[in-house]
Design goal:
mainly alpha; flat; single chain; about 170 residues; 2 domains; 2 strands; two-stranded antiparallel sheet
Length: about 170
């Protein structure tokens, strides 16, 4: 298949309702539509009881709880949409999984860095090297995740989902 036809086919596939870009759009749109509705339905003093223990109740804002609830419901609907069409493709949610994993690692690294930075600032030991690490952390997480994907792309393409293998050829 000529490269131009491959590119057109790939672009058409990304517009399919059962693909990752549609999942992202659906999730964002539904969350934005549901949040104001949830804010009106929830009481002003909404409480969360972690683990079912009322003594450990955490007071949260109605807006925060509405945002979380709307986002969770939107994501659940988006996943249903993403997986609605059964195909033989392996890893239908691989894009989402890799995206979520990379974001989670990015958040963990960022939080760990902020805690270390705060300790070093309080101790008066924060220096230029520490300052430069803060600027490099996001790029480093991105580079590592990209390196893992590219390593698999070049050396183990058979482990990629079927749609990605077509790109390798």
């Amino acid at each position: 298949m000529p490269k131009k036809k491959q590119v057109v086919r790939i672009l058409r596939q990304t517009l399919d309702i059962h693909r990752f870009p549609a999942f992202c759009g659906f999730t964002v749109a539904v969350r934005l539509l549901l949040q104001p509705l949830f804010e009106k339905l929830l009481p002003t003093d909404a409480r969360i009881h972690p683990g079912g223990y009322p003594a450990a109740a955490a007071l949260v804002s109605r807006q925060g709880l509405a945002s979380f609830s709307a986002g969770a419901l939107a994501a659940a609907g988006g996943l249903q949409l993403l997986n609605a069409r059964q195909t033989s493709d392996a890893g239908r949610t691989l894009d989402l999984t890799l995206f979520a994993l990379t974001r989670a690692v990015d958040i963990i690294v960022g939080e760990l860095w902020e805690k270390r930075k705060a300790r070093r600032v309080r101790a008066g030991k924060f220096n230029k090297l520490d300052s430069s690490v803060g600027y490099v952390a996001d790029s480093l997480v991105f580079s590592v995740s990209t390196a893992v994907i590219m390593f698999t792309w070049f050396y183990y393409p058979e482990k990629l989902p079927a749609y990605a293998i077509h790109l390798c050829n």
